[in-house]
Amino acid sequence: MDRKLRLTIILGTVSALAIGQAHAQVGEPILLDTIVIYGDRTTTVAEDSNSSVAIADARQLERPTTQTVTDAFRNMANVSTGDWTDTGFVLRGVNSEGLTPGGLGAPLASFYVDGVQQTVQGTRRGVRGTFDTEQLEVYRGPQSTLSGRAALAGAVYLRTKDPEFARSGAAQVTYGSDNHKQIGLAFGDAIGDRLAYRVRGEWSEKDSDLNYPSYRAFDSYDDYVTDDYWTLGGKLLWLPTQDNNTQVIVSYSRSFDGQTQNDIAGPYWSTGAPSYDARRGDIWGDILPDYYRGFGLTTLPVFQEVREGYVNNFGIELTHDFSDVLRLTAQTGWTESTITRNSINFGMKNESLTTEGAFTDKLYSQEIRLNYDDGALRWVAGGYAARETQDAFRNQTLLSFAQTENEAKLTNYALFGEAEYRFASGLRVIAGGRLDKFEQEQSGVVYDNGALVSDISNDFSDTVFIPKIGVGYDFGANQSVTLIYQEGYRPGGAGIRASDGSEYEYDAERTGNIELAWRGRFMDDRLRVGANIFHQSWDDQQVELRQDPNSSASAIIANAGESKSYGAEVELAYAATDMLDITASLGLLQTEFKDFRVGNDDFTGLDFPGAPSRNLALGFAWGGDTGWFANGNLRMQSSSLSRLETGVPQPVELSGFGTVDLAAGYGWDNAKLTAYATNLFDKEYYTYEYGPGAFASVGDRREIGMRLETRF
Hints:
The protein has a single domain, classed as Beta Barrel (Maltoporin, Chain A), CATH 2.40.170.20. It is 3% helix and 59% strand. It has a 22-stranded antiparallel beta barrel. The chain has a 5-stranded mixed sheet with strand order 3-9-10-7-8.
């Protein structure tokens, strides 16, 4: 009989959590399918990639313990979520937005949905669920010669299921703790022999497990305490020629995301604050700092925002094979994200202390590339262009009426390429580069009670070349090593401090990354092991600092003179029996600011915030396509420093923690019933803390539930 085999593939610097077909008949070897990847511009086959990439495939993404994109990170070495709701993901101890949450300009790592590059706000509050997705790829380290936008820290690619020329569909229903309800529906079919389509929809809603007693009277209370999202999307596949050498995929999706906050008050937030055990999240309600009580105020809901957003994605992916060795790819993307940020009491009668605001970002991108691969020589050459506009406003009524408006336009043009030549002896040489031109224009105004306080505009442009060079060697039938050096770059620029309208400047940040990778296959391909060792040096690393930790409007971007990060990733997969597969990953990381002084604050010698020195993941999957099955994973993470803030020379050290996810159930030919638990032992841990003991961001608590699903 046939079955699906869970494995981790590490090829070159590739680590992949993937599924392959396996023959499990007695006496026959297990044969693994080729894994197709989408994010590496040099190849479409995982075993030919020189990138460090972790891959979660469809079988993992459909588990109830992996309900969102960030849930999949728990199985990956040196990959994690950000420290609070409105932030990016973390690769090798560096946030995808850099150490500049939401900062203007290019993020350090990009997020792509069906090839469409997302904005910063779209990454935070865009496509979140994993229903009917084909694959998630997480690329660690610089990817500047292999992607549209230069990616200093890495990139994440989410691929939903493509249409097929056969009728198919899927449905699932989930119910869990905190009144968690989720529904997913998908259907696809052919329209003649040249067209096929697939449509999908997912909706999820869950109550917050934090307490907000002083917010109950506000009209937006239900929105604030409900974590909900939905996505509607579709794809159209067109084969315009009879030889099928040309393929066009048109995709569209519209998403809504209303994530809840995860901040709780501590005993030292104010004289009346409870302990963390009270799990009070109404920090600006009854729990009010003494500073504001001095003005006779008892509540400040104006500081508590309800953030909700819509994201539209439209993409056209065209591929044409000129021959068996030469392919043309053109990827067109357009995305628009609109995130509102109104205070919880906004719009209510007799509420005079309110905030109204929004972020609106639009991004158009175009990438064209040629790929060549004849076995000995393979190369990619491409061009990229993107135009992004960002608009934001905030109106706040407190002791006065303050208005801020910001606009920005970012333009990026690039030529990129990479070539690899394989000698008969097994030696490989690799060389590549990127020529990048970046332009930025921005303006901002600040009003106080109708009087113009600040009116500033500035522009910035830069053109750089980013090199890459490497060498590899294949020895024996199943062993290889690769050594690569490549640089990373993020442009500098100028910013406007929203709190007072003042202008500041910051320099570009640059990195040099050297990485050694080893891969090996043993025991008739039942055991695959891989290891990556890297060292990355940083010059002028951009870091956001806040004068007031409670206000993003007080933030500026500063440059750390020198910093470094180095570490290792070891990942393996073992098909222990025809029914049991085991996976493991270990991430080791060391980071340090070697020279970082800003005003009276000296952060020299500190680790990067949110960069644990160790993380370990162990997983198993037992069972086949039908009958009883079980799967689970353990994630352990060491301690790390909280966010850097002015006036806090030594950030709080967050304790390490471990979580366990477990699922078990029974499968029929076309249906499956699963019971699951995430964070089974209800471990409480913090991802951020200001203080100590003032307030913190808390991680996800335990969820227990059931899922029923069917496929046809």
